[in-house]
Specification:
298 residues; mainly alpha; two-stranded antiparallel sheet; globular
């Protein structure tokens, strides 16, 4: 049943990528309320806020799914599909990335920065087209982890509760990014939840792209990047496609020095199509593995 729930949710994702935004808005409002009312400056307060803002809703989803499945199995399955569908969102993210690239094609850098800032309000945005393009590709890989592979991974392990826990933990991390002590626990939990999915995703990129270059970049460049999971993901993705990501960013206040990731030439404006295609090939690989496991269980 898990395989068919994943397939149904992915079909819905392609058919209706623009889903109602109320669930995520409600989640952000709840997380903002927790920040306003529980932030007393200590990490333990962030732990309590994460428990109420991410863990408790995930447990409620688990209980509700269990209850519906007990009433009627197809009802429980439909609940799983809808929960997974609302946790996904890479299709919409790829549309946003395409909008950034269109703005770069029109030399509208201000519009490109505005669209790119939707993903991460705290992102230092480049001042030239080359920097913005590399950041767009990097953020597309990150969105693939946050809104596709990470969601699928924890759904496969823990059901819809795992998918909800992953999404709400990332929303908490982003909502509390300006709070050092209060947001520490959410940041650590997001990093922990991403650790294994990022590596499974990177290995899938190697299989779906240039295997040797992806593994070479993974082994040789990851330690130079600040965030290990981020470095694994970006290095393997860039190597699989023969792209060069990372590198120095030209900001309005000066240059931001970053190590190079990947191989080959600097990406062109058509590189986004290759990134999105690689992500979906890797996702289909996961579905194929699920299908083989299902066939083996018959």
């Amino acid at each position: 049943m898990t395989l068919f729930a994943v397939l149904a949710a992915l079909v819905l994702e392609h058919w209706r990528p623009e889903r109602p935004g109320q669930p995520r808005r409600t989640a952000r409002e709840w997380l903002a309320w927790l920040l306003d009312n529980l932030n007393a400056g200590g990490e333990q307060h962030g732990l309590l806020a994460w428990t109420l803002g991410a863990l408790l809703p995930a447990l409620i989803v688990a209980g509700l799914g269990h209850l519906l499945a007990g009433i009627w199995a197809p009802l429980g399955w439909a609940f799983d599909v809808l929960a997974l569908y609302f946790c996904l969102g890479f299709k919409g993210a790829s549309y946003l990335a395409a909008g950034v690239v269109r703005s770069l094609e029109q030399d509208d850098l201000e519009r490109a920065r505005e669209k790119l800032g939707v993903w991460r309000p705290n992102l230092l945005l480049g001042a030239d087209a080359s920097s913005l393009l590399r950041q767009t590709l990097e953020e597309t890989f990150r969105q693939a982890l946050a809104r596709l592979f990470g969601v699928l991974f924890w759904f496969l392990l823990l059901g819809p509760a795992g998918a909800v826990l992953h999404v709400l933990t990332h929303l908490a991390r982003d909502s509390w990014h300006g709070e050092s002590a209060f947001g520490d626990f959410a940041r650590r939990m997001a990093a922990w939840l991403d650790w294994l999915p990022a590596r499974a995703m990177a290995f899938s990129f190697a299989i779906a792209g240039n295997f040797q270059d992806a593994l070479e970049c993974w082994r040789g460049q990851t330690t130079e990047w600040g965030d290990p999971s981020d470095g694994v993901l970006l290095a393997a993705g860039a190597g699989a496609l023969g792209l060069r990501l990372g590198g120095n960013l030209q900001l309005s206040a000066g240059a931001l020095v970053r190590p190079d990731l990947g191989l080959g030439e600097a990406p062109g404006l058509d590189a986004l199509d290759g990134v999105v295609a690689l992500v979906w090939r890797a996702a289909l690989l996961w579905v194929a593995v699920l299908g083989l496991l299902w066939l083996g269980s018959l």
